[in-house]
Amino acid sequence: MLEQELIDAPARIVHIPTVVGAVVPVYNVPGVQAELKFSGPLLADIFLGRVTNWNDPAIAKLNDGVTLPPIEISPVFRSDRSGSSFIWSDFLSKVSPDWRRLVGANRASTVPIGLTAKGSEGMSAVVKQTPGTIGYVELIYASRNALDIGLVQNAEGEFVRASIASMSAAAHAAVGKMPRDLRVSITNAPGTGVYPVSSFTWLLLYESQRDRERSRQMVDFIRWALRDGQQMAPSLGYAPIPSEIVPLATAMLEKIKT
Length: 258
What we know:
CATH architecture of the largest domain: 3-Layer(aba) Sandwich
CATH topology of the largest domain: D-Maltodextrin-Binding Protein, domain 2
Structural class: alpha/beta
Order of helices and strands: HEEHHEHHEHEHEEEHEHEH
Distance between the termini: 23 Å
Mean pLDDT: 92
CATH class of the largest domain: Alpha Beta
Strand content: 15-25%
Number of strands: 10
Number of helices: 10
Shape: elongated
Helix content: 25-40%
CATH superfamily of the largest domain: Periplasmic binding protein-like II
C-alpha cells in the first residue's frame, strides 16, 4: 500500500511478504520466433507511444539477426487498477526519467494510447489474439497462455529471462536492507542474474481484528506458508522468499493480535 492509503486506512495494517513474482513483457509479432530483448528505456518509449513500429531501429539494435516486420505496435494496458501495473510502472519509473515524470509508479494507466484489457486473463487474451500487440502480465499467466515472453535488461546490462532463479536473485538483493515495515521495492535490483521486473507479493492484514478466532486461524496459516509452504511456490510460478527474510516476516506476523 502507498503511504496515503495506510494513513487513510481505518486501522493499522501490516505487510507480510509471502513469495516473489515477476511481471514480464508479452508480445504477438507475426513471423518472429526468437525471444525478443528489451531494455527498460525502450519499453518505456514503446508504452509512451514513441516507438511505434516493430522494425524500429531501437528494437532492431537490441535484436541483431532477428527479422522484424514493418507493422504497427499496439501497447496494451490494464483497464483496472492492479499490482502488476504498479510493478511494471515502478520499474519503468526507475529506468526512464520521462516515464517517471509523465506516468510514475501507480496501479492505473494514465497513458492515453493503445488498447486496454481487464485483468491478467484479459491482458493475456488481447495479446494472444491481436497481432502487433505488447503487454505485461505475471509470469504464471504468460506461461499458462503460451505467450511469447521478452528478455529484459537488468541493472548490470544483462538481458535476463524471468525464472525462479532470476526472481530469487532479485529478492536476495534485499537481504540485509529490508525496512522495518518490510515494504520494499526490488525492481531494477542490482546484481548479476537478476530479473529486473520482480517483486515480493504481500498479504495485508489488520494488526487488530474483532474476530480473534478468525485472526488466529489466519496467522496459523500464514506461519505455515512462510515455512513449509514455501516449497510449493515454484510449482505455482513464484520463487520462495529468501530464508534470511523469513524470520523478519514471521516477526511481523506475530504483531497480529489473536
